[in-house]
Amino acid sequence: MDIEQYMQSVGRAAREASAKVAASSTAARNAALLAARDALDGAREALAEANARDMARGRDNDLDAPLLDRLELTPARIDAMLEGLAQVAALPDPVGSISDMNTMPSGICVGKMRVPLGVIGIIYESRPNVTVEAASLCLKSGNATILRGGSEALSSNCAIAACLAEGLRGAGLPEAAVQVLETADRAAVGQLIAMPEFVDVIVPRGGKGLIERISRDARVPVIKHLDGVCHVYIDEGADLDMALDIAVNAKTHRYGTCNTMETLLVSAAEAAAVLPRLAVAYADAGVELRGCERTRRVLSGVAVASEQDWYEEYLAPVLAVKVVDGLEPAIAHINRYGSHHTDSIVTRDHGRAMRFLREVDSSSVMINASTRFADGFEYGLGAEIGISTDKLHARGPVGLEGLTSQKYVVLGEGQVRS
Amino acid sequence: MDIEQYMQSVGRAAREASAKVAASSTAARNAALLAARDALDGAREALAEANARDMARGRDNDLDAPLLDRLELTPARIDAMLEGLAQVAALPDPVGSISDMNTMPSGICVGKMRVPLGVIGIIYESRPNVTVEAASLCLKSGNATILRGGSEALSSNCAIAACLAEGLRGAGLPEAAVQVLETADRAAVGQLIAMPEFVDVIVPRGGKGLIERISRDARVPVIKHLDGVCHVYIDEGADLDMALDIAVNAKTHRYGTCNTMETLLVSAAEAAAVLPRLAVAYADAGVELRGCERTRRVLSGVAVASEQDWYEEYLAPVLAVKVVDGLEPAIAHINRYGSHHTDSIVTRDHGRAMRFLREVDSSSVMINASTRFADGFEYGLGAEIGISTDKLHARGPVGLEGLTSQKYVVLGEGQVRS
């Protein structure tokens, strides 16, 4: 297969399909999603067979256990995919709404209409359920998608794609509105991220290495987050029971997620009171602490945190702890070492809470809440295609609205410029 | 001068200043703008001398007359700069507003806060008044700016920068919030667009060549428009007097602007009625027509339009004219040959008007209005740093809001994820 030629034809088909999807009715897009759900439900056997081929190949290639686990399409996971399609169909359609319509001195009315982005490229790793999730969100928001899953999931993804195509056909929408790349060739990714004429934005989902590579080489805008180095800061005078709950939840609720706390900052005024209680709670949970010098003066058994620890996204039961002299050094630490993802203050003081909200330069900034809330579902977006720590376009959890943009619409009655 | 070292120090200073500007009060930023205005007013002599040096060098280097004209800082142009600073100071501050605050089932309140982008790099050509315009919009919206003007305007831009610095100092804001590059070395631009650690977005203002080069090489997001290939479509049944007014205004109001119509589309049903009247009006204005075969059947004297003409941004008294079979081919032509800038339909039919609004994929889509209205002032934005034909972040005229983004803010009372 000539990869360049193949990708050009995929891109052209996506661009053509995107105009039709953008002009389609909400009802047609919802019908396609529900028909795809029925098609998947009817193809459980074919899905299981395709997935078994991927699993066998994965075992032959010595994939490690967590990768194999993510690759597996269990009946429960297929149920979750069906449920997800129904949920996305039930979400409100962001496309076509007009806002901020105002009459100007010239007499023209100017407003903004929400419109799809066009063609969205999704690059992701082993979990085949992402195929359904990403395709459904892009379709609901009026976009065409090109999906490039991990090569280890190729058979599963192609089987899923056949069901999505059936759904599109059933609703009278072009099948090219959702295309799964049918090649394991890595060159296809290089092409996908360098076709601005056919692809409007790339959303990579996966490890940091993948995302860094894509961001570096892309000739198309990328919606991404690289790291989740999230902080909780315990302010002087904070409710220490609340601080304990939040600090423990933010670290131990799940270790492998990007909104998990990786560094805890404690105001010097509370260090002696709160650190020993935290140490007990973290010890119970099996969390290893690495502290600054002042932390170690209170908790003598704790290992020394190096400069590198402040940058670290452990994704593991490890936590860096630093005692700071108050709000200002806490904010400075977060803006310097953090990844602009999610940071929370535990405080009783309104003024300091407001300063934290304003001055912490992160996609989610919280007062008295666990960083684990930074999530599309918890924010009421209904779904999430990813979390962005970029500053342009979308910051934080990206839902349907993040897959659209706004164009200006002008309603006149014959006005001309004088 | 070691350019790389110089640019790193400029970038680092801008990043540091950006945190201070972002945290500053509206009053402080307005005070800086008004103090800069007073400083410019008091420095008219120094500005005239600096500008005279640029003009003399320009003449020595055989700059052509339009470039020399744009370079000149006349007293009236200095007055306009002062007026501009006062206007920007008077605009509402977009920073800090919180919207869409809602309570979630978990009890947390989630909303979005408008925040500055951070550091904005502006790359522009000869007109020194852009230095004031761009710097004032970036400062008002809480951003730090790095300005790279044309080398031919270096003395003028440095003289203006000294006044802006005086304004910042007077208001207690860091001078590095506005930095004009003090070098004519082209390598500085290459550095500026490749420092994502220090620069959040680049806004190029200038010719297509400049913008293409920057977009290709940038390692930082770019807000830009390349072309303004704008259309007016005269629908069947349109008010032909209105159509004539709009088509003439959209072409002849100004030839060199990006929102000027470059191709006129006419429904076949109206060709015989409207084309002869248009031909007279355009002949009076000295506009040369280039038509498709069907246009030439009505207007026999008109030159043949080639395929290339449909892509052309003439920026001159030349107009391509095409007869189409109705709305659908008109939309198809615009989406294929246009530049996604601004397109207008003249129609009496509500259904076709709505389809045009929805399906034309341009940053501004208009009904019964001249394309010349696509402008930040006409849209009520108060000011405009440029027009974007990109799809992410900002489309169409970019005002203060386009220089900001939104982060999520979460107000809790101790909530944790369960």
TrEMBL record, chains A, B:
Q: What class of enzyme is it?
A: oxidoreductase
Q: Which GO terms describe its biological process?
A: L-proline biosynthetic process
Q: Molecular function (GO) terms listed?
A: glutamate-5-semialdehyde dehydrogenase activity; NADP binding
Which reactions fall under this protein's catalytic activity? L-glutamate 5-semialdehyde + phosphate + NADP(+) = L-glutamyl 5-phosphate + NADPH + H(+)
**Keyword Repressor annotated:** no
Q: Which SUPFAM superfamilies match?
A: ALDH-like
GO CC terms on record? cytoplasm
Pathway annotation from the record:
Amino-acid biosynthesis; L-proline biosynthesis; L-glutamate 5-semialdehyde from L-glutamate: step 2/2
Residue ranges annotated for the Aldehyde dehydrogenase domain, each copy included: 10-283, 310-374
Family the entry assigns: Belongs to the gamma-glutamyl phosphate reductase family.
What this chain does, per the entry, is described as:
Catalyzes the NADPH-dependent reduction of L-glutamate 5-phosphate into L-glutamate 5-semialdehyde and phosphate. The product spontaneously undergoes cyclization to form 1-pyrroline-5-carboxylate.
Q: What is the protein name stated in its UniProt record? A: Gamma-glutamyl phosphate reductase
Taxonomic classification: Bacteria, Pseudomonadati, Pseudomonadota, Gammaproteobacteria, Cellvibrionales
Name of encoding gene: proA
